[in-house]
Amino acid sequence: MLYAAKCYWPGVTRIDVEQIAALAAQAGLGMGRSGVAYLGSLLFAADDLVLCLFEGPSRAAVIQASDRIGIPRERLMDSAWLGLPIQEVAPPRSRPSGRRAWPSPANCD
Predict the structure, then answer these.
(1) Helix ranges, the chain (H)
(2) Which residue among 2, 8, 21, 24 is least enclosed by CB atoms within 10 Å?
(3) Cα–Cα distance between 78 and 64 in angstroms, integer?
């Protein structure tokens, strides 16, 4: 099942979220070895908000895993992914080529 941990995190930065990802990998959550997999996060820095996405067998398992890596979780929400498979929409790991992924506003009608 897919879960989103809503994290109100005043002053959160991209570096903070990258540290969470590193801690998740160290804890074995990157591969889902504990039955829970950390899938990544959405950062809304201007709103002090992070949504951390997990896949796991139960709410209790995800709560235990997120507590273990120190995510300041406000609540855990059952979620449903609607769209492309998560692996296909993850950002590339290589440096961007400078090409725009989306059309500029002038080209959108």
Answers:
(1) 14-26, 59-68, 86-89
(2) 8
(3) 15
Q: How far apart are CA 3 and CA 5, in angstroms?
A: 7
Secondary structure string (H, E, C) spanning 48-72 = CEEEEEEECCCHHHHHHHHHHCCCC
Q: CA-to-CA distance for 17 and 12, rounded, in angstroms?
A: 8
Give residue-wise pLDDT tens across range 40-53.
Answer: 999 999 999 999 99
The domains of the chain, with CATH numbers, are: 2-81 (3.30.70.3090)
Cross-strand bridge partners of residue 51: 6, 42
Neighbours of 30 (CB within 10 A): 15
pTM across the whole model: 0.70
